[in-house]
Amino acid sequence: MSAIDIPPKISDSQVINYVRSERLGRKQVRQFKEITRSTDKVISVWFNVSEKTFQNYRSSNGKLSINFKEKLVLLISLYKQGEKVFGSKQAFIDWLEKPNFHFDQKKPVDFFNTISGIRYIEDRLTGMEYGDNG
């Protein structure tokens, strides 16, 4: 399985199936890092792990924690949805980095450290797909 297999707009039951799968590992962690174009330091904050732990997940066959796997699946799906809504990965990344009214003038990327925050961003993207301003 690759990060490419994870769909945009993923349901909770799909997340559970991916998380319970033993197929998530360093390959998907590396692919996620490439998708986001972010540093290990930044990504480790999103996952609430140390930079060293993230580097170990990315470079070794260490077993990913279930919480890490859940967030990995959700964030890969979010990036796919964002690229679809904005038409390009870079446009989505730019949107994530700008303060936004819907996020109390904070950057959407600042909400990556919780599952609820990721789901809230998904909801905003879905609204944008249907004509709501983002």
Secondary-structure topology with pairs:
Blueprint: H1 12-20, H2 26-36, H3 40-46, H4 51-59, H5 66-86, H6 89-96, H7 115-129
Describe it for me?
With 134 residues, the chain is an all-alpha fold. It has one domain (11-129). The chain is built from 7 helices and no strands. The radius of gyration is 14 Å and the shape is globular. The N and C termini lie far apart (32 Å). The model has no long low-confidence stretch (mean pLDDT 91). Residues 82-131 form the Antitoxin Xre/MbcA/ParS-like toxin-binding domain.
Main sheet specs: none
**Overall geometry:** globular
Work out the oligomeric state of the chains in this entry. single chain
Q: What separation lies between the terminal Cα atoms?
A: 32 Å
Radius of gyration, whole Å: 14 Å
Task: Output the helix-strand order.
Answer: HHHHHHH
| Percent strand | under 5%
